[in-house]
Amino acid sequence: MNRSALGLSLALMLGCAAAAAARPGGRTTTPESTGKSPAISAISVNGVADIDPAKAFGSREPVLVLEVFSDFQCPMCKEFYERTLTRLMKDYVTGMSPCKVYIVHRDFMWPYHAYSPLAASYSRAAAHIGKCAEVEAALFANQQKWESSGDVRGTVAAALSPAEMKKVERLVESRSLEPLIERDQQLGWALPVRGTPTLVIHTRDGHAYPVTGTLSYDLLRSFIDELLRHS
Predict the structure, then answer these.
(1) Segment 118-166, tens digit of pLDDT
(2) Of 198, 158, 190, 153, nearest to 172 (Cα)?
């Protein structure tokens, strides 16, 4: 399949997803900088910069880089995580040898989701103690509960040991990882992200294919497989 055909396939995919991707509220201004330096250096993979390796999975010498812009309080992001992202991880990261994909989580928080920033902070801190998967799963699985109660901390604590939770809380309280979250948000505005979840598929030769909204996993997998075969 040539680039034109791939582009047509993507256009059809975007057409299917566009209606589901609408979000109220529109774009807001970019948050002010915290002025702090990240506690860990970001990396670049295949020309995709500002990656927090604690929030990325797979090969660092991949054929494709998949950026996922997501909001923990977004219902469609929960659906994408449970129905699509977990399958992408299984099929292209843990289940593929050699691994040809690098999946990058980007925090992108809508201003009308009151608890998204706190959820992002706890998730980022958990990632930096090696507990990213456990906490992301807990936050999405219990989304309605903590959205109603505001008890993000309790949701995270239930997924960790007391010792792990102490480490996470120290990181959250220090705010040392906030610049990494802030940078994800800035990258999303620059793209621009118009709805969550947004998946951006990057090839080695610099092409980028954005896909917004929930999408049939079979259709997405077919497109990824075509890119892998022709990259």
Answers:
(1) 999 999 999 999 999 999 999 999 999 999 999 999 999 999 999 999 9
(2) 153
Contact between 134 and 159 under an 8 Å Cβ cutoff? The reply is: yes
CA dihedral 69, 88, 48, 7 (to 10 degrees): -90
Contact (Cβ atoms closer than 8 angstroms) between residue 182 and residue 34: yes
Prediction pTM value: 0.83
Q: Please tell me the distance from the alpha carbon of residue 189 to that of residue 193, in angstroms, as a whole number.
A: 6
149 close to 187: Cβ distance less than 8 angstroms: no
SS (H, E, C) the chain: CCHHHHHHHHHHHHHHHHHHHCCCCCCCCCCCCCCCCCCCCCEEECCEEEECHHHEEECCCCCEEEEEEECCCCHHHHHHHHHHHHHHHHHHHHCCCCCCEEEEEEECCCCCCCCHHHHHHHHHHHHCCCCHHHHHHHHHHCHHHHHHHCCHHHHHHCCCCHHHHHHHHHHHHHCCCHHHHHHHHHHHHHCCCCCCCEEEEEECCCCEEEEECCCCHHHHHHHHHHHHHHC
